[in-house]
Amino acid sequence: MAGDKGTSMPKSRMFLLVLFKSLKVRRNRVAITFFSIMIGAAIITALSSVYFDISAKMSRELRAYGANFFIGPAASSGNRNVDRQTIDDAIKMVPREKLVGASTYIYGLVRLDLGNAVMAGVDFPGLRKLSPYWQVEGKWIAVDFDEDSCMIGKNLARNMELKVGDSVNVIKNETGFQKSLTVKGIVETGQAEDEQIFVNLSLAGRILGQAGKVNHAMLSIVTEGTDIDGLAAGMQKSFPGLDAKPIRKVSYSDGKILDKIKGLMAIVAVIILTVTTLCVMTTLIAIVSERTREIGLMKAIGADDRDIARQFLAETLIMGVAGVAAGLAAGFILAQVLGQAVFGSYISFRLIVVPMTLVPSVAASLLAAAIPVRMAVRVVPAQVLKED
Amino acid sequence: MEQIVLETKGLTKRFGNVTSLDRVDMQVRKGEWVSIMGPSGSGKTTMLNLLSCLDAPSEGEYILDGVATATLTEKQRVAVRREKIGLIFQQFHLVPYLTALENVMLAQYYHSMIDSKDAEQALVHVGLGHRIGHLPSQLSGGEQQRVCIARALINQPAIILADEPTGNLDEANEEVVLNLFQELHREGRTIILVTHNPELAEYSDRVIRLHHGRVQNDASAH
Amino acid sequence: MFFLMLRQSFFRGRKRKALATITIVLAASLITALMNISIDVGDKMSKEMKSYGANINMVPKSENISLEIGGVDYNPLEGQVLIDQKELPKIKDIFWHNNIVGYAPFLKVTAELAGSGKRRVPLVGTEFDRVTPVAGDEEFRTGVKVVNPYWQVHGEWPADDDGGAILAGAGLAREMNLKAGDRIRVKVAGEKGGEEIFTVKGILTTSGAEESGLVAPLQVVQRLAGLEGKVQSVSVSALTVPEDKLSRKARNSSDKLDSAEYDRWYCTAYVSSITHQIEEAIPNVTARPIWQVAASEGAVVNKIQLLMIVVTVAAFIASGLGISSLMVTTIMERSREIGLMKALGAADWEVYLLFLSESAVVGVVGGLLGCAAGYGLSQVIGLSVFGSTVAFSPIVIPVNVAISVMIALAGSLMPSRLITKLYPAEVLHGRR
After folding, report:
1. Is the pLDDT of residue A377 over 70?
2. For chain B, which ranges sit under pLDDT 70?
3. Nearest CA-CA distance, residue B173 and chain A, Å
């Protein structure tokens, strides 16, 4: 400014001059302030991003519980089976990105080498996604056209003295069908599956003499953001011969668990938010209060409280906004790290996070500056100025 | 008869049980140079704080340039300070991140209009025309004190209050500052100087000696 | 002399120290609370997971293979082995008896409904909500309401000792136009089968096989079927820890465990060790984990625990940086003091020692206070989210204090350049 030979200068320009010089010279302190605001904002951003995404993420995780939707023949029709094509069409009504897995089933009694058993025809790739909880010794059947292999329940395998790799004859007296299958895997679920034998759906249809027919389908659908009851009603309207309904045991529990997790995240986020805000505040208080002498001097040469408050709040506002901007970026990266570490997927960015971070951070910064400025303004300048 | 710029009646300041200043009566005429002297603890600093409106008295009256200040609020005292008083400190107290010129302009900023030409003129006046763009840390103690004086003068105050202005200076610089004060005196400014340095007090028109918060002696220096 | 200086300097900047301590208290309480929650969230969430129903199924030891398709059994009931109901309270005698949340016995028979062409439907007998005194807990309540909380009844739940009350499955009710308050005559199939007139108390929705049948109090079904004191299967709901390498090894080849591994497996609440202990306690039964619940619970609980740990680490880093920056400022503003100390001949390390000791004191005080505050905070979280208090793990205290001290020290070491590069003259003459 030394070179400025103009006679007069607007007050606003002087204000900005003092503001920026003060920020520039106190680089170290400004850096620390900026840094602590940034950290606080980053944490808030990351946590609120995770919070808004948690339902979607956990809803997918909860699909570990398997099927939560059932499609079968309408009870009123009295039929025990339906056309495979009809059920496949019904399954197509579920939005692709919401469908985790689905399999159609056909059941029937068959004779194995050592006794009778219930045989289930399934779609293996779909079943594997549908029932991640199956405890399989050996291997899953990976493709839906393998007609030489089967999977077998643990109890059935024990009774029939079968091990992985053995072959077993499947006989259906009524159709005269007979085929030797290799046991690819032995299944344990603790439920009815332990006593059943699983084969490819089209093979089962031929064995049982009911090609093209199925008993029902089980689906695993991401419930978050899906109107599952509406979906069921829509399906029943489009396919009057079908009965479609959520499986209460799973869908009810999903909702309960999601609520708990959301509640937990909300409380944890609020507490972290409060504590980080307070931490940022104490740092700011420490930084502003070391400038008591400067405030005293300004008062001594004629600055009134408004002048001082204006300067300090403006300084803090600049650091606050810059810190929050950097914090938003850093926080979004942090959210991705969190998402990758916990869920193995990215957390989506939501606009609501910006005001949610901006408002508490900037408010905390201004409040943090206001407290020591208020204290300093009350100090009798004479005392501050005499101190060494 | 010159007009009276500053008058106190029964000025008293107490801090808890300690009476720091006890019923001080004094008058300063326009253009007069008054020194306030006394040993440590005699109430010099309290006196200065009251006179500069940095603090309010517990009792008594203080009339500055026609304004009764004793009962003013803090906000009003700020206005009085801005309009009527130029302060010079022992520790200079310049804003460290502003240049010499900007430090002077800061006083203008708080007072009324900023005029960089005037501010520059003030610095030239104290002999710092060549150092207006320097930061306080780049200036010697004497130069800093001269910036402080320029700042005190810039708004044409009714009185100049100086607190031990040479206390932190070496002999050469003390000389420079002393000459400046003499010049200000010649220009007809009213100066109140708080010091314990008898050499400095010698140049003033009148010396007020404080002892245990009371005026012990109020006499012409010569 | 050092301690005198430490004390003096500590009490002189009391306001600053208080600020630093407050920050550490805040951060430490946050971390204490999060650590506590992380440690306890597994237990808490697995309790919540109980809403998915029982995770252990207990059946009589039998060589028979069930031939049931869609609720219709192709094996005759005759000759079926059953469990003695008197044995059931022994489930609460096992090593992990505190982890048994509840159990529900089931007895399923085929019944004929009078009218509507002698329609055959499954009739299930069970206990709904019964006080079952067991060792150590005279008030232990159990039944399907505890074990299968997803069962929903429109109307009323029948009382366990009400011989004339029955629930109708939603599917059956729809087909037969049954509603609460209707009376139906039910005859159990077979020669010994008794007959009884029931009042429908409510309509049951489960999305399971029960929806197409009737559910009545266990005693009534036992009497009607002539199977007094017998049950067919028992659903057990137990709190378990997620499966890991050891439990998988135990499951695949339990004889390959050495004795130390066996003890560890036996004394861990794996679903497999609990089923093993149930089989030990009650002769002639097979207890099997229902993997749909047991395995999935592990997966979900692990996720939540991981989430909490990651959040704790993030909060920890944030508060660590926050405290460090505060410590940096408190030291920076004391540069004048450092200059004076150096001018008086203090070596750099002596300056360090004073500042670090101060920080350590602040860290310890802040850490301890923070632990106390964090304990309260974790209870608030526990009560508001899970409706129960969170267990306090003592390990949190030393960890937290150590962490607080380390953070405070780290923050004090950061401006070390300030201490070593500071020339006394500059400071004392106010150039810095």
Report:
1. no
2. 1-2, 220-222
3. 21
| Cβ A42 vs Cβ B117: under 8 Å | no
Count Cβ atoms within 10 A of the Cβ of residue A190 and give its class: 0-12 exposed, 13-18 middle, 19 or more buried: buried
> Which of A246, A267, A293 lies at the terminal end of a domain, its last residue?
A246
Domain assignment present for residue A2? The answer is no
Residue of A nearest to B56 (CA): A380
| Chain A residues touching residue C29 (CB < 8 angstroms) | 275
Nearest-by-Cβ selection for C65 from A107, A156, A248: A156
Same domain, A183 and A43: no
Same domain, A129 and A238: yes
Indicate whether A209 and A98 sit together in one domain: yes
- The SS3 assignment for A99 reads strand
> Distance, in angstroms, between A7 CA and closest chain B CA?
5
Q: Does residue B210 contact residue B43 with C-beta atoms inside 8 Å?
A: yes
What residues does each domain of chain C span?
2-48+296-428, 55-240+278-289
Predicted confidence (pLDDT) at residue C93 exceeds the cutoff of 80:
yes
Give the pLDDT score at A3: 41
Give the tens place of pLDDT for each residue, C318-355: 777 777 777 777 777 777 777 777 777 677 777 778 77
pLDDT at A171 over 80: yes
Cβ–Cβ gap B115/A300 under 8 Å: no
Q: Is A329 exposed, middle or buried (0-12, 13-18, 19+ CB in 10 A)?
A: middle
Q: Contact C330/A118, CB-based, under 8 Å?
A: no
Nearest to A212 by CA among A226, A202, A220: A202
A residues 16-35 closer than 8 Å to B (CB): 17-18, 21-22, 24-26
Three-point CA angle C154, C156, C158, nearest 5°: 130
Q: Do A302 and B116 touch (CB under 8 A)?
A: no
Backbone angles phi, psi at A243, to 5 degrees: -115, 115
Give the residue from chain A lying closest to B94, CA to CA: A297
pLDDT in tens, C148-167: 888 889 988 998 888 888 99
pLDDT for position A124:
92
**What are the extents of the domains in chain B?**
4-220
Read off the pLDDT of residues A199-243 as tens digits, 9 standing for 90 and up: 999 899 888 888 888 888 999 988 777 778 888 888 888 888 888
Burial classification of residue A176, based on how many CB atoms lie within 10 Å of its CB (0-12 exposed, 13-18 middle, 19 or more buried) = exposed
Q: What angle do CA C329, C333, C337 make, to 5 degrees?
A: 135
Nearest residue in C to A273, CA atom = C315
User: Are A116 and C330 inside 8 Å of each other by CB?
Assistant: no
Nearest CA-CA distance, residue B222 and chain A, Å? 31
For the domain spanning B4-220, the CATH number is 3.40.50.300
Domain boundary residue among A216, A246, A276? A246
Give me the interface pTM, i.e. the ipTM. Answer: 0.73
Domain assignment present for A7: no
Based on the fold, state whether residues A110 and A217 are members of the same structural domain.
yes
Residue A3 forms part of a structural domain: no
Q: Are residues A222 and A91 in the same domain?
A: yes
Tell me the per-residue pLDDT of B121-179, one tens digit each, with 9 for 90 and over. Answer: 999 988 888 998 898 888 988 899 999 999 998 888 889 999 888 888 888 888 888 89
Tell me, yes or no, whether A262 and A137 share the same domain.
Answer: no
Instruction: Give me the domain span that covers residue A168.
Output: 68-246
Within 8 A of B153 by CB-CB distance, chain A residues are none
Instruction: Point out the residue among B54, B105, B115 whose CB comes nearest to the CB of A300.
Output: B54
Nearest chain A Cα distance for residue B78, angstroms: 6
Beta strands in A85-176 (DSSP E): 99-112, 115-122, 135-138, 149-153, 167-172
SS3 A348: coil
- Kindly state whether residues A164 and A51 are assigned to the same domain: no
Name which of A155, A267, A285 is nearest C381 (Cβ-Cβ).
A267
Do residues A75 and A204 both lie within one domain? yes
CA angle, A116 as apex, A115 and A119 as ends, to 5°? Answer: 135
Instruction: Please count the structural domains in chain A.
Output: 2
